[in-house]
Amino acid sequence: QVRFVESGGGLVQPGASLNLSCAASGATLDYYAIGWFRQAPGKEREFVSTITRGGGTTYYADSVKGRFTISRDNAKNTVYLQMNNLKPEDTAVYYCASGKAATVLSSFDSWGQGTQVTVSS
């Protein structure tokens, strides 16, 4: 079973950028769609972005479209989330997970421990 370790979070001011990484072990990422999800305090975990197994197609939540970019390097078994123009409402713990298909959010599991992103002035 694939296991993930997320990193790259931190405390930043509004308008700043962060690049999150999700390093996988235990399996080759080529077989999986990969997604980023986030959970803010007191809220349910929500979809942020997913990417197909080959990386050719990406999907984004409306709230992050145009600001976030998901990418993957299967040779490094790593997935990234470049986050630009961060807003206070982006504050959350960010998780990556593997899934059977990028459009089937219910198929995502094997959650990592998450990385905290805090956007505050």
Question: Which descriptors would you attach to this protein?
Answer:
121 residues; mainly beta; six-stranded mixed beta sheet; 47% strand
Largest sheet: 6 strands, mixed
- Beta-strand portion reads over 45%
Principal-axes shape call:
globular
- By secondary-structure content and strand pairing, the structural class works out as mainly beta
Number of helices: 0
Proportion of residues in helical segments: under 10%
Q: Could you write a compact summary of the structure shown?
A:
This protein is mainly beta and 121 residues long. Helices cover 0% and strands 47% of the residues.
Task: Explain how this protein is built.
By secondary structure, the chain is mainly β. It contains no helices and ten strands. Strand 7 and strand 8 form a beta hairpin. The relative contact order is 0.32.
Present the secondary structure layout:
Layout: E1 3-7, E2 10-12, E3 18-25, E4 33-39, E5 46-51, E6 58-60, E7 68-73, E8 78-83, E9 92-99, E10 115-119
Parallel strand pairs: 2-10
Antiparallel strand pairs: 1-3, 3-8, 4-5, 4-9, 5-6, 7-8, 9-10
